[in-house]
Amino acid sequence: MYGDTNYESSQATFSFIAIEGIVEEVGTGENAGCIKARMEVFSESIVHDEWIQQMTAWVGKDGYGLVEPPEVGSEVAIFGRLGEGHTLFYVSRHNEDFRQPSGFEQGERGFKTDGGYRGLADGAIRFLAQQLVEVKAQTTMLLEAVETLTAKAQTVNIESQNFNADAGGEVIEASGGGIGFLGAGATGKIPLPPDASNLGTVIALANAIKTSLKTRGFS
């Protein structure tokens, strides 16, 4: 029991009791966020056979809000509506087997998850910082936009062992006096000759490559 506080009025007396529980099953689909738990104060082996709803920090309009399912085997505090044994709710808590996450020793706020994490928004998502915004990925980072992807800064640096720019057959343009490729200044688009099929087209293709290299600083 975490607390037992009575609030008396002229109409009713309310008793709020929290009971420890161990998560045995986590719901999916329409039961996402709900759990089935074992309440050792009653039985160490019997699992409550009804889904227990999560008490969450925020609920939006229908179909919107937070989904933070606990880990199987972790501890929760279970409450009954008006102290009754049905219409149950739970809150997760840390204990000696599920300790506070590491990585926040300097007093930062945040979350740490061992699985995926997804944020879905019908409107804009904005991250605003007075100093550094750092995003890292150990394998692959994907930035994708249906219309426009913009990087705006006084200086943009790209450091990569291999850098590929693919416009899907369309045009890639770079403008500005300080933009260069292979150590040269920005150049205009150079049309390529037809595919090589005989000696004449092979010579034309070789000359086009030579011209392109010259415009990029080669001599």
Explain how this protein is built.
With 219 residues, the chain is mainly beta. Among the domains are: 4-93, Beta Barrel (OB fold (Dihydrolipoamide Acetyltransferase, E2P)); 180-215, no CATH class. The protein is 8% helix and 19% strand. The protein has 1 helix and 8 strands, in the order ββββββββα. Strands 1, 2, 3, 4, 5 and 6 form a 6-stranded mixed sheet that branches. Strands 7-8 form a two-stranded antiparallel ribbon. The radius of gyration is 31 Å and the shape is elongated. The termini are far apart.
Task: Looking at this protein, list some descriptive labels.
219 residues; mainly beta; two-stranded antiparallel ribbon; 1 helix; 8 strands
Give the integer mean of the pLDDT values. 78
Structural class estimated from helices and strands: mainly beta
Q: Can you tell me the overall shape?
A: elongated
Span of the ends, CA to CA: 83 Å
CATH architecture of the domain at 4-93: Beta Barrel
β-strand amount: 15-25%
Question: What's the CATH H-level homologous superfamily of the domain at 4-93?
Answer: Gp5 N-terminal domain
Number of helices: 1
Summarize the structure in short.
The chain is mainly β and 219 residues long.
Question: Secondary structure elements and their pairing?
Answer:
Blueprint: E1 4-8, E2 13-26, E3 35-38, E4 53-54, E5 75-80, E6 88-93, E7 180-181, E8 184-185, H1 199-215
Parallel strand pairs: 4-6
Antiparallel strand pairs: 1-2, 2-3, 2-5, 5-6, 7-8
